[in-house]
Amino acid sequence: MKLPRLGVVLLGTIARDLGWEVKIYVEDIAEIDWREPLTADLVGISTITSTAPRAYAIAEALSEYGRPVVMGGPHVTFLADEALAHCPLVVRGEGEKAFPLLLDAVARGESYDAVPNLSWRDAEGTIRHNPLTGAVDDLDSLPFPDFGLIVGWTQVKSFGSVPIIPIQSSRGCPFGCRFCSVIGMFGRKMRFRSVDNMLAELERYKDLKPYIFFYDDNFTADRARARELVSKAKLERNLFSAWSAQVRSDAARDDELLALMQATNCSNVYIGFESVNPEALVEMNKRQTVDDMVRAVNRFREVGVDVHGMFVFGFDSDTPAALDSTIRFAVDSGILTTQFLILTPLPGTPLFDDLSREGRIAISDYSLYDGQHVVFTPKNMSPWRLQWAQIKGHARFYSRWRTMKYMASGYLTKSAVYLYARRMHKEWRGANDIYLKALKLAERARRVQISFDFRTDLGEIARQVRAAAAALSLSPASAPA
């Protein structure tokens, strides 16, 4: 399921409404037609950490062709100076206030002094960081994202023919997990769109009877509002066929909400359980217990809502035995699907600051910062042991036996999900063969006390693998002049 991030679509919609001709490329949806950015008045590139190398390569190539490039997104928000080595302009944080002012400055050929949130180089080459403006308090003031601006966009289909529409109804998070950059990007204060504003956006898709996926980091942060929204949207107006969202385990404490989920065809929820190691839960500042997880899974299953559980491996208090316990919990808990992710020090998080200060970040290749690769030195196990725990977890959860059980029970959709997960896991191991062999080599070298610098040697191997992979795909430098 390849859905676009909403930020770039929202900014594109704002620019379109101001009279600019806008085209948006999402490489997972359509290849870039290089004739477009090479003739654009301004090219905007949004990136998270794992896509930063690709984003930087595109920015450098377009800059060489004389195109003005501005970058935005979480990664460059926290590492603006780094990004300015690859492009001339960076918008930090939320861009809805800054981007229209930047467009106006570009159109008029004026100075960037008055553009808030902007990092840039002046005529003398000095890096300037303009002051940050306040976040958008009134989310209702923003336009509805126009997905039609995405080149090659057609409604993403779920199983069958139901289109999936992504919608975001809030920003911010009051919790503050140490490995998460949401607070750094959007703040602790929760900001909500009004129910009426949400209903107006959903009304646009009424004829499609879509499947709605709420992009909120915690859709049920205000449970009364969530109840009102789904009740009015589904029970009163029937604006969608089904829905899903990211929630915390505490949502399962609300009996009225659970009843509404059942009545409005909430098919599944995505919950970050993270770990069953109590010490790790405290370490990450998760503010939930194992009992909370068990209760949540049971309550959601009682009302027919499937649970996708997400777990994170690699905290300092984690041991191989603790990771095995988390895997067993996932397999036995009754959740339908899972992801075992490896702790990743993303810029803008307390985790990144701590590991940087301790000199434990081992790999600087951002393309590996995707939650699937070990990029730091764990405390209580080797990098290979941590990576193997993730591999073993997926293999056990999506085992052939569990897949066959769903098939024998006639659950064809669930069987298809398991078959898909098994195929993706196999493909990932094949694509990362050299990386995995390097981890094993480091492990064997450690056991026989042969010198192998995880920080240097593995990082160089990873860099070579990524460079070879990038050479096989179209790069901006190969675009027509």
Fold and architecture overview:
The chain has helices at residues 6-17, 52-64, 74-78, 80-83, 98-108, 182-186, 195-203, 223-236, 255-263, 278-283, 290-302, 320-333, 350-357, 383-397, 400-408, 412-431, 433-447, 454-471; strands spanning 43-46, 69-72, 89-91, 118-121, 127-129, 156-157, 163-167, 170-171, 191-192, 211-214, 242-247, 266-274, 306-313, 337-342. It is α/β, with parallel strands linked by helices and 481 residues long. The strands form three sheets. Strands 6-7-10-11-12-13-14 form a seven-stranded mixed beta sheet. Helix 8 packs parallel to helix 9 and helix 17 (433-447) runs antiparallel to helix 18 (454-471).
Which features does this protein show?
TIM Barrel, 7-stranded mixed β-sheet, disordered C terminus, 481 residues, alpha/beta, Rossmann fold, 5-stranded mixed β-sheet, 14 strands, 18 helices
What is the topology?
Layout: H1 6-17, E1 43-46, H2 52-64, E2 69-72, H3 74-78, H4 80-83, E3 89-91, H5 98-108, E4 118-121, E5 127-129, E6 156-157, E7 163-167, E8 170-171, H6 182-186, E9 191-192, H7 195-203, E10 211-214, H8 223-236, E11 242-247, H9 255-263, E12 266-274, H10 278-283, H11 290-302, E13 306-313, H12 320-333, E14 337-342, H13 350-357, H14 383-397, H15 400-408, H16 412-431, H17 433-447, H18 454-471
Parallel strand pairs: 1-2, 2-3, 7-10, 10-11, 11-12, 12-13, 13-14
Antiparallel strand pairs: 3-4, 4-5, 6-7, 8-9
